[in-house]
Amino acid sequence: MVAPKKKQSKQKIVWSVVGIIIVAVFVIGIVNVSNNKKVSSEKDKTKKLSILTYANWNPFEFVNNGKVVGFDLDLLKALSKEAGYDYTVKNTGWDAMFTQLHSGSVDAAISGITITSDRQKSYDFSNPYFVSRQAIVTKKDNTSIKTALDLKGKKIAVQTGSTGQAAAESILGKHNSNISADNGGTTNLQVVHGQATAAIGDETTVTKYVASNPSYNLKIIYDDKNFKPEYFGMMFPKNSPYRSDYDNALKKIIDNGEYTKIYLKWFDNKPALNLIKARQGGSK
After folding, report:
1. Domains annotated on the chain, with CATH
2. What does the pLDDT look like over 216-237, one tens digit per residue?
């Protein structure tokens, strides 16, 4: 009876050693997986992002001496630095920007893009970084247009696919032949040359245009009743892993004053920080 007990004791020792080895291997495996995840995360963080813009919206983005510059470009630089990403910017067409982003061939776009419920069905947006409204541009001697409702029955120039087009359609109706949609950035020139009675565009853009071209004798008409405030955001493919990093970066540069510094470089008025802050979500 004594011998079997010793054998049983030896078996317990063997199984105990085996158990320790299994536990050790399991723990080492967890550590390795954790380390691999950390490396993977660091690789994502150092990825050079591909970002598109449509450089035809002074002062947001435009070409100056062969270089794309503007408010959006300065903001992108500050956001990317805060978020920890390197990036490249490619100037492309307005429609092409949406197409490439939807295909997932690029990482983001920034180009004074208004956040709309329709666009949110196909793309992710950052928290708003700019608040604006639509404005009407017409000749100074035009006394027939006082509100957006006065645009009915008149030729209206808009940027193709823009919220200016959506604003025109809300008054005149979709597919109305009086809406002249153009993707070449000539909406205001259509008014200058008499091809359109008025143009509808982003307030900041048209304000800059009218002020820069006094010889065109243009004026701006606002209608806050029919044209609600709009918010611009960076646009990403659906389920983008980078959106939250840029959201957090935006909140930080708003809080530390960098956003206001960039804004005042390009615009004469102070930013509507109360409206922008109110729409900053809690990205993690």
Report:
1. 45-131+232-278 (3.40.190.10), 134-221 (3.40.190.10)
2. 999 999 998 999 888 999 999 9
